[in-house]
Give the backbone structure.
Amino acid sequence: MTDTAARAARMLAGLLAIAFLGRPADVAADDARSLRERLHADLHAAITLAGYPCGAISATVASGPSDYAVQCRNGRRFRVHSTDDGLVHVTDRSPGAGPAPAARADHAAHVARSLFALVNLSGYECDEVVGVEREPRRHYRVQCRNATRYRISVGADGWVAVERLR
Amino acid sequence: MPRTVVSTLIAAMVALATAALEGTLAAAAAEKAGAPPPIGDADGDGDVDLDDLVKRIGDSSAIGTFTKLSLKLEIDRFERDLRAFHDRAGKHSLGELHERYDLLVHKLMRLLQDKDPGLAREIAEARDFLWAKLADPREFRRM
């Protein structure tokens, strides 16, 4: 083998080594990213179902296996943790946040909270539902305090669609 | 998976969806063989393994743990209010409870339909059937 061929072979071996050595790191990075995305989606859904607007999660800090400090892109901060009795608690830790308002148990409050969750779980930002208009077949038009409006509908296949209205 | 992770209601949704699907398949097979299709499922549960179905939801990565616990809390409250209605001690009408049920299913669908479409489809197919069971006081107490 000539010197040129030997150098080429060594270079090829080096490149292959880098490629194969690099691969597990890439996979590990992908796994870590996937885990983080799933955790963010889980925390976001819990905050949304508790009735708080979050937009998207920008950072989390774990202070226990089931205890997270969450920073949202809209500037709000929350603590999300679960207890041994299977309850999940979401506490507003935003600057200036007072004690959590008592959850209203009347029907209008249930409906507004569910529609709020549906809009925010669909990637939109509704700060608070201030108006609800019912349409046939459990379809809704929703007005939010931040002046955004949405239509929530259910297809024949049962799939739920949330559409922002202009 | 203990039923503390997901509520009996979710388990029932999936179980009834599976039972309904099995019933549909059985009816199709019977029709093909020339026999009349069966009319409904007398006991609703059939031979469905609820624990296995609950485990399937519990193991699904489509909904995270915090989300499951949040939904469980909401379903527990709904179940409490529906029980109170059937005991004639509730504050909510059946129409209101039906709307809450529908919105609860909407949320489940919203969470599942993109990440676990098979499970979402089963719940969509079962939703009316399950509501009929929940709205019937005798069926509700048997669930």
In short: The interface with chain A takes residues 4-5, 61, 63-67, 69-74, 91-92, 96, 99-100, 102-104, 106-107, 109-111, 113, 120-121, 123-125, 127 of chain B (CB under 8 Å). Residues 8-32 of chain B form the longest helix (25 residues). Confidence is low (pLDDT under 50) at residues 1-6, 14-51 of chain B. Residues 13 and 127 of chain B are 7 Å apart (CA to CA).
